[in-house]
Write a structure and sequence with these properties.
- This protein is mainly α.
- It has one domain.
- The protein has six helices and four strands.
- Strands 1-4 form a two-stranded antiparallel sheet. It has a two-stranded antiparallel sheet with strand order 2-3.
- Strand 2 and strand 3 form a beta hairpin.
- The radius of gyration is 15 Å and the shape is globular.
Length: about 100
């Protein structure tokens, strides 16, 4: 019977849809950290992020985090997913993708 519960649990937690940061991804990786959300909003607030169902402005997504200080790009990424209501980041992207630039 425990197999039935495991199946229901996996169905209840759908993976987060892909969020496309576009040029903002590189800008966030190159930005100097630590940085506050307010500073990021000031610099990149008009940037648009694409989800499968909508387009969101970066600044709007970080409004509730204005006093938050981010230590690295992956922290910003997680805040965006939280603001969009996603429990987990999409499996296609890893935190490592956000911490270092390709060489």
């Amino acid at each position: 019977m425990s197999g039935d519960n495991a199946a229901r649990d996996s169905e209840a937690r759908d993976p987060a849809p892909v969020v496309t940061f576009g040029p903002l991804k590189r800008a966030l990786r190159e930005h100097r950290y630590p940085v506050t959300a307010a500073e990021l909003i000031e610099q990149y607030g008009a940037a648009e992020l694409e989800t499968p169902t909508e387009t969101e402005r970066f600044g709007r997504l970080l409004e509730d985090y204005a006093e938050t200080r981010f230590r690295e790009p992956s922290d910003v990424r997680q805040a965006v997913f939280d603001a969009l209501g996603y429990d987990d980041p999409p499996p296609e992207t890893t935190a490592e993708d956000w911490s270092s630039l390709p060489r």
